[in-house]
Predict the 3D structure of the following.
Amino acid sequence: MILVKLGGSVITDKGRYRTFDKANVERLAKEIARSKVPVMIVHGAGSFGHVLAKKYHLKDGFSDEKQLKGVSQVSLDVRDLDLRVLGALQSAGLNCVSIPPSACCLMDDGKLTSFDLEIVHHYLDLGIVPVTFGDVVLDMKKGFGICSGDQLMAWLADEFDPERIVFCTDVDGIFSSDPHLNDDASMIEEVDRSVLARLPRSERWADVTGSIYGKIESILDLAKGREAMVINGRVRGRLERALRGEAVKGSRVIGDG
Ligand code: ATP
Ligand code: IP8
């Protein structure tokens, strides 16, 4: 089984609230279906999650009743996004079901501590593709919090030990600096913790889960003894070839142990 993350930068326009990239998601769905490889899918929240999560300070947990409107709206928005992704996957011929983290996950002080996977196992056994996503989740310490798709990827990788792990973003891989802001940025083919420490920090869009740096941190954690790749999900054919095990342009993340 291959664990795939469709990043928020690939399925939405992260700079514009609730802008779904239908064409790209439909193409990716067809690529996944054509590859005929068993997968489990996680998707990011993109502009359906990060914009309001930032506005209402949801990552910091409960401090004010006014935030509850934000919890409710973000929860609604990410479900809306998830339904659109599921629709594209189903139209491409993949039988899939949604696993909403708000209903089966718990966090403690911002860290995912519980994700009941018995149900996910049963769907996989039936040959149905489970699809989960970055969401607002109950937090035992803070009341609520934001669970990123990257945290879910780490949890699923530990439980299911996938053959390969593929993260799709809107750039070719991990670069020496943000390639959208710096034309001289060069792609780093092999990324380890020392690379993360050297990366200059910048943030183009609201991102409450640590942007690319939070992502590299999560991938370093989950990549122990496993192959994890960051590839460009906006380039036609790249995900399909990666799923088939062909060599594609991208960054390989090498875990600590
Ligand atoms: P989400 O977490 O919402 O699902 P995502 O998985 O698509 O999003 P982002 O967190 O948006 O991924 O990370 C990709 C973005 O990170 C790129 O659009 C790029 O502009 C930005 N970025 C900043 N620094 C770097 C870097 N050193 N290498 C690669 N991308 C970088
Ligand atoms: O897009 C964030 O998940 P991500 C989830 O995978 C929300 O970082 C609700 C902002």
Q: What stands out?
A: The pocket of Isopentenyl phosphate (ligand 2) is lined by residues 8, 44-45, 49-50, 53, 74, 78, 134-136, 146, 148-150, 208-209 (CB under 6 Å). The radius of gyration is 17 Å. The domain at 2-253 is CATH 3.40.1160.10 (Carbamate kinase). The chain has a mean pLDDT of 94.
